[in-house]
Amino acid sequence: METQTEGRSARKRQAILEAAAVVFLNKGYPGTSMDEIAALASVSKQTVYKNFADKQRLFTEIIHGGLDRIDELFSGVTGALAVTEDLEKDLTALARQFVAILTQPRMLQLRRLVIAEADRFPELGRTYYERGPERVHALLAEAFKHLADRRLLTLDDPVLAANHLTWLTTSIPVNKVMFCGSGEHFTPAELERYADEAVRVFLAAYRR
């Protein structure tokens, strides 16, 4: 059973993580101070260092938390796609969910932050790539293999096909926001149109 002390410690740790995410995503790594994180989390700086040895460790924890969320979102969805009875309908639903998730402000800020700090933390950037985009493509590729076995798709390289689908779906809105800033917004209807057209082009190339 969780003691009151353990419960308070867990809540403080979570408050620090939430505060750190806000500060890192808004100010970047160089502009973030442990003092500001402590103030926003309403804890002492000593408490921050008790939970996280230094700023780099805390930064790493924030990135890993975002990656866990990506994995949770996609692992179940792509598995269901492999046994679909209506490929176009279910692939369109997946593409719509995919573009909606990737264009959420928090996700875009996290992506921009990792890219900005890739030279400073190359291993962290690689981890983000492997557990983010590469993981999503691997899950999609596995689903595509099953669909090919069922003669619903024709493909020689499932991973390349997965890359084609994700870039067809997300490249326009994600690139625009990444270059033009978070002030750029897309309506749900616009995002759905990108997803629908991506699936149409993808199936024209890969459907039997």
Provide a descriptive summary of the structure in words.
With about 210 residues, the chain is mainly α. The chain has 2 domains: about 55 residues, Arc Repressor Mutant, subunit A (Orthogonal Bundle); about 140 residues, Orthogonal Bundle (Tetracycline Repressor, domain 2), CATH 1.10.357.10. The model has no long low-confidence stretch (mean pLDDT about 90).
Rg is: 20 Å
Q: What's the CATH H-level homologous superfamily of the largest domain?
A: Tetracycline Repressor, domain 2
Number of strands: 0
* Low-pLDDT regions: none
| CATH A-level architecture of the largest domain | Orthogonal Bundle
Main beta sheet, described? none
User: How many alpha or pi helices?
Assistant: 10
- What general outline do the C-alpha atoms trace? elongated
Summed over residues and divided by their number, the pLDDT gives a mean of 90
Q: Do you know the CATH topology of the largest domain?
A: Tetracycline Repressor, domain 2
Q: Summarize the helix and strand pattern as letters.
A: HHHHHHHHHH
Oligomer: single chain
End-to-end separation in angstroms reads 56 Å
In percent, how helical is the residue content? Answer: over 70%
Q: Into how many domains do the coordinates divide? A: 2
Estimated share of beta-strand residues: under 5%
